[in-house]
Amino acid sequence: WKRKGGLQKYHAKLVDGMLARGYEREYAERVFQQIHGFSEYGFPESHAASFALLVYASSWIKRHHPAAFLAAILNSQPMGFYSPSQLVQDARRHGVTVRPPDVLHSGWDCTLEDLPHAPAVRLGLRLVNGLGKAAAERIEAARAERP
């Protein structure tokens, strides 16, 4: 977008799209100007485009499959900006049922459990401080052998 006029060709599409969705023209123009200003010093196009695709896909999954999104993001820790606790709190605020780690039900990873209205997230043993993977595997093996 740093190429001269590279972003300008998207002006009408962005503004018209925002107007069609009920935004005021002044607001749509301000949004475009902020994006245009950022394009002067922002990421290279290739990085920005790939990051935008990741953000779009992640946002879609979080919106349409919030429990699966939470389980996946927790299973990918440590990463990113937010602690597991913050991620769980956010999911709960958005209606996701989150069940605690349980030696009778949890595996190493966070999993989904069927509920009538939407899946719940069962927190995995990986989130228990001080419990290593080998100990979790022993718990799972003992559970499999119980009567």
Automatic annotation (TrEMBL):
Pfam families: HHH_6 (PF14579). One of its GO terms (biological process) is DNA replication. Residues 95-145 form the DNA polymerase helix-hairpin-helix motif domain. Coiled coil: none annotated. InterPro entries: DnaE2/DnaE/PolC (IPR004805), DNAPol_HHH (IPR029460). GO terms for molecular function: 3'-5' exonuclease activity. PANTHER family: DNA POLYMERASE III SUBUNIT ALPHA, ERROR-PRONE DNA POLYMERASE. This is Error-prone DNA polymerase. It comes from Actinospica acidithermotolerans.
